[in-house]
Solute carrier family 7 member 8
Amino acid sequence: MEKGARHRNNTEKNYPGGSESQEADSGGGGVALKKEIGLVSACAIIVGNIIGSGIFVSPKGVLENAGSVGLALIIWIVTGVITAVGALCYAELGVTIPKSGGDYSYVKDIFGGLAGFLRLWIAVLVIYPTNQAVIALTFSNYVLQPLFPTCFPPESGLRLLAALCLLLLTWVNCSSVRWATRVQDIFTAGKLLALGLIIIMGVVQICKDFWRETLGGHGLDHAHFCRPVYIWRSQWVPLHLLPCISTLLMLVTSDIYTLINYVGFINYLFYGVTVAGQIVLRWKKPDINRPIKVSLLFPIIYLLFWAFLLVFSLWSEPVVCGIGLAIMVTGVPVYFLGIYWQHKPRCFNKFIELLTLVSQKMCVVVYPKEAEDLKMK
């Protein structure tokens, strides 16, 4: 399927409003995204990815389930140390395999196409939509809670406001990259301000000996609802619609902690697989250039903690974890039918080409021209 509608250098027509590269600069062909993201916006994207909604939601749940402030603090310290260990492992993988794609690129290069496809499959169908649903529900909860001071907001209201938030942000992303970057910048600044207020208020309450009340209250997550903004897409890209629709489906429940457990298990599963790939890569390619090289003790410690959390999650939430695993397994036949099976019948290939061509014409899209200098040599 190297020809026809699937060709990546398809420059059949330039559409107004799209994000196109200047053909004079690219040597006479190809459509690519404009470089419209500046330094501030790029930093805002990084901050938005690092500071998730968990810091605003999790402290209350951790304290409630831990039963004491001391145990909650120990849990936060231990998980912080383990996260730092995992970050060091990812740092080595990032400079050893300098490709865009994160976990997908690492898993695909180390374990093969099936593992990489399953990572991408579960990310598109479960991880990204669930993360966005958690953020949208948290935003709607903190917006509606002041209107219901003596009770919890109605579930229908929470879902409706969350859905409206998602639809609005999807429209912003599909309309203009510049608008999306401005929204990202504004709410990233608001997020940092909210974190600062939480820290300052916490210190003040500690001084007043109201520690328990401080941690038992709500966080300030109103600044974080813009997390679903994918500003690296161009205009007229229908791929905005897939995460939006998938996220709307996740709103069948308004229980934030159920969604967190749901996505946490699957996400952490592939974190462990990626870190295990670091050990495998050390064995398969011991002489590869590694600008950053950490001790093997770090991935081993991380994997031991990873295995404990997976077993505990399966024991405590078997249904939630089982649903995530079932969705992941559905990607296996898709991979073998769509990618691994090379010698497909001609009628099958013609149907896929026709379907792709019709989709491209309806959505006004083509494949972007790949930048050669970004490919791994």
About this structure: Residues 113-144 form the longest helix (32 residues). Residues 1-27, 210-236, 371-377 have pLDDT under 50 and may be disordered. The domain at 36-329 is CATH 1.20.1740.10 (Amino acid/polyamine transporter I). The chain has one domain: 36-329.
